């Protein structure tokens, strides 16, 4: 057991927490040492998530009860806002610890952007400097050496993966990007709210956070950097009646001289050899169900009927590549494991 | 009974056919005189659609068996392509008959556009000239006098209603429109195809007909006319796991001097007093479930975070306002009935 | 307006409340005079249920604000337990008022049964004596003269309708009844609870309240009375991922000499001429989707492979015939209207 | 590679076929050597099931093209009826081959029962004698030595696992069993049929095959054997709107002297140490979503309110433990692998 990575999950009673357990319980190089859930401390994990009835898991505890001495790496699956202080405390108590944070707290490198989008000043500015934005494929080298990985948002990952290579290669107009990003319900978590009830979500669709969804800030940060100038995407999330999946439909205007085929080639080149990103043949659009339950992303590029626009489509499972799977992928990088270790689950379809 | 409008439904065994029955069976000024379904001729309608078990409906017959002498108006809910000849035959047999056609056959005024999008020359060019494109709110006067109303497509109606007023008023750039139009499954009809199976559609989402969906031709026709120039929308349909509803998320670039508020005002003005079109307060996006089962449309306008773009959202029930409801609305116009006659069903939510 | 029935709905912000609005807003003999929702008092109904955006409805108020002088009949769609006192107060203030109560408070005629199943003594015993159990088809005459109708539970109505005639006719063994009653989510109401979240309900099924669901008490009351002795059904509710519908699968052991065909004949005789109850041809099982959105019930009887058992199936929409539709049906009886007045909505399928 | 088991899947283009690929592609001791799909021969598996886009799989071929010399074990995921001859041919060509058959063809040991339920005489009676009914937990020893394992039906496995121990122990009355078995859509396969369309299945529930479903024959066979006499269950399947999962609600009458607690204890004893069968604490009912995607079964026993009946609930994923997972479990037995090899996938929830 001495060569296993000892891991704690803070916030194990939410969906990203349980998804971490699903992946890590079968990870050959990880030992799950602590699971926390402040309001459910004392309960067995199988009481909160009966799918784990057959596993031998630690009981839920408070964060304070976790023995950090026995922990190498912490996954934080806590609400944003409160996470900053929790992580600052972790490093204060054990400077050598590694953290993969699934909240939004350390995603924005610019403190002003944070304050603008989240409505209050950041509480751990020193730590923010050390955080690496955890799109595994784009920041692999930085993540390998990181003490704190800021796992990106689910919508963000879905759109950043296809758009960053296209912006870097100057193949699309940075100011004329429309993203409509349809998501299943599990991305909203397990808190009981009226608008998340089955009867409010089933058999219907609606846009939410229109013109102001906070993942926009992550898109801005990454698109500006990739484009080398200010980019602007209009980002509209839709809630659709399914549990898992994000599906971004991106309408892009081609840069002068670019073609839809060139976009496709650029994505194929960018993700050549990547185990989790699959670019479909030119002209094909993916389906979210074909990545469900897996850490995979499928990308498609289709030409519009005119010569100057293309439709780029990207899909992933919001709880896996959009959250806990990418978090494990980042842990693998931090710990020096194989990229695919513990992430071999194939998609479940139907 | 002499003052009732005598109506036949050709193609009553499909979903738009059954939806016509649902609406017309309770219409106070209509008598349902004939229902056809060539492959199911001889069966009782309640065998094909058991929800009608308690109604006293005519048995299903072939089209040839319909006694046109007793019919004032015909709804055609047949597949496109074959409909042209069927309708030409109807008028040949009874020139005074009125027809509301739910297929795509008479929607495109330009025969070349038809040939391009449908892959073969139109078979009833003379009749095409008489057809009126049946967006009830936009072509009310022409519909009133029409012998043949070409009921528009479900995606088309959803996007035409919000965009035509905005293009007419020159409030948005006609060349920079992105439409992502999410639809439920019932719009695809009742033919048994693998990709329409429950297991292929549930718990997932995908784009289809990307860059080439035929409803694009209807959008082009109406947007060009409204803009007074060539307009171009990129139109991407999504299939999402629900029965009913279309939800168009439109990213629009504002014309110089225009504001999102001006877009909202223009829609409010355009649909003031319209019984079926509701513009929500500025900044609110509608939900498809709030129009489900009704002939209502809900529109919303939201400003993007920057000054030059707006998100316009439109939703309706694809089988009602997107097909059979609008067909009845058009019948009301043709027959001189009150606009809302037989269309008072409130949305079913949850 | 003087000949309209003036109606108030207490608890209009829940699903049975909104369903009452859907039905009553189109009822030709009813005026909706007051809508209450204590926690949402002051809001417009369209803010709480945007499907009513186009209607001219009274604003939500507290119960105390309702001017009873202007009200002829009150629908109570409030949580059980608190309803007893509210209704007692109504009669205290206005003895001539009529009440249709959708809660469970007045359904059990036996105060001891109430105390046993609900865990506390009944608070309005005098009033309980006046209450009529509102299965419209079974207690039509009593309901006509009632001051207080206790609308039955959704599961209860679904099983009482097929089983009471069979027990009355001594066609089945009263001690060997198994009922598995699958329900959609809307029956649980709009309160935000974790177990009602979309992600907790979608793509799965589970039994709840096994061996102790409170609707069992209503079944006992009605089955004992019908059988003329103590009957005992095992009643197991299932929650399945749909919004609307209850589907009771009843396994019955035939009484000596009885046949499955005799059961079918008894149901046909019992409901002959009833506008809302349809007995399907012998051997056919109904589908819940064929009554969705309507006040209809569909019943089926199928023989088991052996000679001594039959499967009886019953389905209805839990919000309509299982709650608000039957409440309106009872109102029609109380007010002397036609039975079908305002209840002509056909099922929505698909 | 020499120590890998070389496997062919006949019928890889259906859902049980693709599920076998999902499980076997990650099985550490199996090499997938051949995939057949007669009508789709020549296509890549990723064209038929895009979730496998990143895998290196053999192309689809006809059955005739499979080189049996290179195959140790064949999974048959073909339609019933035709399978008999296919398997007879396999053994004729290579007597040493092992077969796990997922069709119904070899499940019934009694040829008369087969002829009665399937409407024609069995075509491979000699082979039928060698077939072992593959409920892994009940027939482990026989399966280990089998040349032909007849994988049981999905409904059958769900009810046999809880009921056989109870009948063996004489704890319940064999003649008074009611089973209502709710299933998701994927169990019906991928053939395009009207009644399997999304719009026909979503938002509704219905019973099918009432009084005559063929899985009843498997139940009879196993229940009679377990009870040591003729048993009789009334078995009613329900189709509910979800992809995966079977949920059997069993109403059982206790044998004289038995208690619900005794039933629970008997199940705990029967499945003690079984890796895939979990008996929940007494009084708890499982949820199908907690086994989704896994090879797990969850069982629950709840006392009815009276002393003489209990409700027994059993749930599994119809495509895993109900089909392909149990097939792999049986392959593990036949090949002498660890029982859990390749079957460690945890349930996906939400």
From TrEMBL, chains A, B, C, D:
Its EC number is 1.2.1.38. One of its GO terms (cellular component) is cytoplasm. It is an enzyme of class 1 (oxidoreductase). It catalyses: N-acetyl-L-glutamate 5-semialdehyde + phosphate + NADP(+) = N-acetyl-L-glutamyl 5-phosphate + NADPH + H(+). SMART domains: Semialdhyde_dh. GO terms for biological process: L-arginine biosynthetic process. Keywords: Amino-acid biosynthesis, Arginine biosynthesis, Cytoplasm, NADP, Oxidoreductase. It is found in: Cytoplasm. SUPFAM superfamilies: Glyceraldehyde-3-phosphate dehydrogenase-like, C-terminal domain (SSF55347), NAD(P)-binding Rossmann-fold domains (SSF51735). The active site is at 154. One of its GO terms (molecular function) is N-acetyl-gamma-glutamyl-phosphate reductase activity. Its main location: cytoplasm. The keyword rRNA processing does not apply. Pathway: Amino-acid biosynthesis; L-arginine biosynthesis; N(2)-acetyl-L-ornithine from L-glutamate: step 3/4. InterPro entries: AGPR, AGPR_dimerisation_dom, AGPR_type-1, NAD(P)-bd_dom_sf, Semialdehyde_DH_NAD-bd. Residues 6-146 form the Semialdehyde dehydrogenase NAD-binding domain. Belongs to the NAGSA dehydrogenase family. Type 1 subfamily. PANTHER family: N-ACETYL-GAMMA-GLUTAMYL-PHOSPHATE REDUCTASE, CHLOROPLASTIC-RELATED, N-ACETYL-GAMMA-GLUTAMYL-PHOSPHATE REDUCTASE, CHLOROPLASTIC-RELATED-RELATED. Catalyzes the NADPH-dependent reduction of N-acetyl-5-glutamyl phosphate to yield N-acetyl-L-glutamate 5-semialdehyde. This is N-acetyl-gamma-glutamyl-phosphate reductase.
